[in-house]
Amino acid sequence: MSTRRNYLKILVSGPYASGKTTFVKTVATSSLLTTEVPVSTLYESQVKQYTTIAFDYGKTNVDGVDVYLFGTPGQTRLQFMWRVLSAGMHGYIFIVDGTSMLHVLRSRAVYEYMKSLGDYPHVVAVSKQDLPNSVKPSIVAQLFGISPGSVMPLVTHDRSSALTVLKRIVEIVRESTDQPFFK
């Protein structure tokens, strides 16, 4: 007899400065963020002031299901944490910085790494859609070679936008599993 668990572990991953920490802060009802200053390189310091050094954690509830969010650090030097944090996950949100085609193209290698961890349900969220000339989700789908239905627009600091992405991954996990996670 299996035990029903009414929770999900969702990883929030993506490259450096894509919006992972902001996403977790925006959707979580409680959170713990492990950001540190200064960032480690000149390039990083020109992009943002703080960086995630271990992981971000947040908890919220989506349609009666507790969702535990684990945000990964974005620097490849901390890639070992991506594998550690992925243990036991039910799915993930992969956030792509949509401010330039260069950012999108660079994020593909990180996305391929995430896919190498296993065949987990996931969505790709293209962030910063509120900025002018942002790359559209349909373009990201083409570049990543995935279904346009798997790619969503995202404004990480907008609660409604972020919750739409979170609800979609919960829905995909529910549809894709025969595990008794839900009452």
UniProtKB/TrEMBL annotation:
Spell out the molecular function terms from Gene Ontology.
Answer: GTP binding; hydrolase activity
Give the originating organism.
Infirmifilum lucidum
Q: What is this protein called?
A: ATP/GTP-binding protein
Q: Which InterPro entries match?
A: Gliding_Motility_GTPase, Gpn, P-loop_NTPase
Provide this UniProt record's keywords sorted from A to Z: GTP-binding, Hydrolase, Nucleotide-binding
Q: Which domain of life is it from?
A: Archaea
What does the sequence similarity comment in the record state about its family?
Belongs to the GPN-loop GTPase family.
